[in-house]
Amino acid sequence: MEFAIVKAGHDKSQLYFIIKEETDFVYLVNGSTRPVEKPKKKNKKHIQPIKKFPQEIRAIMEESLPENQKIKKAIKTLKISYK
How many Cβ atoms sit within 10 Å of the Cβ of residue 8? Predict the structure, then answer.
């Protein structure tokens, strides 16, 4: 489980969840504008992975909610904790 902040592009400074990783690219989702069904393909050098985040984020991701709702809730909680 990993989150990332976009460093370049029209979605710069946006927070996303990395759903899939390839050699040079990652696939990002945020649960609302970018649902799990339609991830955004982004070059790895254009993102900043977030390695450390609060334990409550892990608890949210383990809840029995639909995937998009979990991701959306986790990103919202992560934004609040970084302010």
Answer: 11
DSSP-derived letter for residue 80 is H
- Quick: pLDDT tens for 37-78: 999 999 999 999 998 888 888 888 888 888 899 999 999 998
DSSP string covering 7-27, please? -SSTTTT-EEEEEEE-SSEEE
Segments making up each domain of the chain, as ranges: 3-81
pTM of the complete model beyond 0.85: yes
Residue 37 backbone phi and psi in degrees, to 5: -70, -15
CATH topology classification for 3-81: SH3 type barrels. (2.30.30)
Which sign, positive or negative, has the C-alpha torsion 54, 55, 56, 62? positive
